[in-house]
## 1
Amino acid sequence: MYTGKARAYTNIALIKYWGKKDEQLILPMNNSLSLTLDAFYTETSVAFNENLTEDQFFLDGMIQESKQTKKVTAFLDLIRQTYQVELFAKVDSQNFVPTAAGLASSASGLAALAGACAQALNLNLTDTDLSRLARRGSGSACRSIFGGFSEWQKGSSDQTSFARSIDANGWEDELAMLFVLVDDGVKDISSRDGMRRTVETSSFYSGWLDSIDADLRTAKQAIAEKDFIKLGEVTEANGLRMHGTTLGAVPPFTYWSPESLKVMQLVRDIRKNGLPCYFTMDAGPNVKILVEKKHLTALKHFLAEYFSSEQLISAYAGPGITLLSMEGSENS
Ligand code: 2P0
């Protein structure tokens, strides 16, 4: 039996990954840039075991049906094939999220699984190797190998597509992200299906790709200059543009709900009142607000008029992946 365990934190993209050019290798159409957060993480243990006749996936102690297990099993198949392992595995994942709010993330989940497998099989991978491997589980997982800011360089092959850390000279510790939970339902359209439909059918998709290089340049410049307003403006604009592509798809779709729009408008109002903050959204209706730590309390105070405290979850910059011993203590 080979066992391993790892903890990985989720990340939120400021410049989004939206679209694959290779579905099988998970090579993205564009580079993306994210902030790893401390508030949501996954701890996963894996045991490759002679006695198993199929893979088993437990999430928060409950065995999962094959639909939920798809990404996990596909990843285990890849591991078996790449490293000549012939055993099935039991995967045990715990999602640490403040509420059951639909924030379970494939980024932290698949990054933790990649780390646990690397640990179990004694692969001795560098962070770059681990990022490449996590990418095969779920694209955004490659960014969760690193703490703080990271950029996923799209590359053009399995070898050249991985994330790397962006050194912000500690600026990430002055930032916060406030999650506004407006809906905890299961998504209608997964991000995987949504991005595929957009790439294949949206007449707006080329506009998305045309704008990426400039957005990335601006975001990296803002980080280097510790310029919050520049980073916030490009984050908000890039997120809106990503969501714009879904409206041009056939058939069109959106991840926004009326409540999402309400939050967006509140953010604009708060900004007009002199508090700098900027929103971004992913493949669901919840809104994330980028704000400087020093303004977080004021931002929450303003939003408390409209949302309960359970709907407002604060997060700060979080660490990279940690490989754990099976008892839970840190190995590296
Ligand atoms: C991101 N998203 O950059 C973008 C923005 C959602 C919107 O990465 O198919 O679960 O497993 O590679 O990583 C979510 O997509 O998709 C995502 P797959 P993934 O964070």
## 2
Amino acid sequence: MRLISVTPFLRVIHRLDVNMFNHYNLDEIRDRARAAFIGMAIGDALGATVEFMTASEIASKYGTFKEIIGGGWLRLKPGQVTDDTQMALCIARAIVKSQAWSLGAVADNFAAWLKSRPVDCGDTCRKGIRAYMLHGTMETPPNEWDAGNGAAMRMLPVALFSLPDGELLRKYTLEQAHLTHNNPVSDAACICLGELLHLAICGAEKSRLRRQVDGLTSRFPSFAFDPYRGLASGYVVDTLQTVFHWFFRGKSFDECLVGTVNQGGDADTTGAICGMLAGAYYGMEGIPQRWLKKMDRAVIAEIESVTLKLVAASPLGTVF
Ligand code: MN
Ligand code: MN
């Protein structure tokens, strides 16, 4: 059952470049969506090994760090994912189960996930989820300190489910983000990331993606990443600077991701965000088999299943 009628889609078409619409190819979109979700999980599993290390500590221990080997401060198995991928899956499952946007279902899944004693959970995320569990709060109060990357890292499912409608993207983005992070800098980062995912999944070139980022930096100059400062903390500004720097200079999924995680810092999250973006851009053929083979099979199987359902339930999937 699809709750999205064709009418809102017609509204969408008016806002789209008609030539671009003619070139939409659902097989290609599915491939890029799958690569985005798998790429996110790969970036999480790869980066987690070097999370909280500095770039020079990584260089002296590994030279260039580029294999999925587990370990790290969380003592992970090779291919194991962390909160970044798990929270994204919570959102994806809520949408698939409801066959609609249900913020309550997302919050319930976050609560069940937190009760399951996850391997990791950021402080701001934990605070927001606890407020929901204790008081049913679905929008955390605005807070100038809540500009961590915890809302941005779980953006992919709402980007897929809103394809290609920018207004729906904005609505779902802000609602999911504000469960835990209510901050204008985080909001701007989340929306820009969602727009980049829409564009990349629909086949836009990097020059077009770069223009979208220029729009963000004109409104929020702190996101400017050229010259690159080399900071990769959990502050969403540092996180996106690192992702943008390595995504725009990399020539392959592999290069974008290796550059990103070797900056260290919040490497699983910079890895996850770069992985979703580079996956969307390069598609499945860009994803190295040596990484895909190392990933947790159950996680990849669930990702494959929910990705297809999210795209099928999106405004774009509904008309094909
Ligand atoms: Mn993590
Ligand atoms: Mn992290």
